[in-house]
Amino acid sequence: PKTQIIKLMSEIGELADDINKQSDPTDSIGDCLVVLTILAAQHNITLLDCLAHAYDQIKDRKGIMLDGVFIRDSDPQYPGALALLANRHQGAQP
User: Fold this and answer.
1) pLDDT tens digits, one per residue of 25-54
2) Around Cβ 71, how many Cβ atoms within 10 Å?
3) 32 and 8 in contact (C-beta within 8 Å)?
4) Cα separations (Å) of 74 from 70, 78, 85?
5) Distance in angstroms (rounded) separating the CA atoms of residues 15 and 32
6) Pairing relationship of beta strands 63-66 and 69-72 according to DSSP bridges
7) Residue 12 and residue 29: Cα distance in Å, rounded?
8) pLDDT at residue 12 in the model
């Protein structure tokens, strides 16, 4: 597993490079998934197990999306983000 973590960090670096260069990230994402698949197998779990677990942890969270970032309703920035969204919505009205 330690070797796979090092490999994953390398693959994430390549993914970050693709994103920064606005290159197609398909190969880099695939490489990350391959390493994650191996790492999961080393722990006798699957990626689907991990995804289901993560979803169960977040499925009931409440909040809003602002500029691609999820802000939980318990976050101190939530009221300001809500106001900003309301202002944007009002500005879009004819």
Assistant:
1) 999 999 999 999 999 999 999 999 999 999
2) 19
3) yes
4) 12, 7, 17
5) 8
6) antiparallel
7) 8
8) 98
Dig out the tokens for 26 from the structure: 């398909």
Radius of gyration of the chain from its Cα atoms, rounded to whole angstroms: 19
Tokens of 76: 């101190």
CA angle 43, 49, 51 (to 5 degrees): 120
Distance from C-alpha of 58 to C-alpha of 48, rounded to nearest angstrom:
15
Task: Report d(CA 11, CA 7) in Å as an integer.
Answer: 6
Tokens of 12: 């994430």
Structure tokens at 65: 């999306």
Residue 4 tokens, joined: 């796979």
Reference 85, options 66, 63, 68, 71; nearest CA is 66
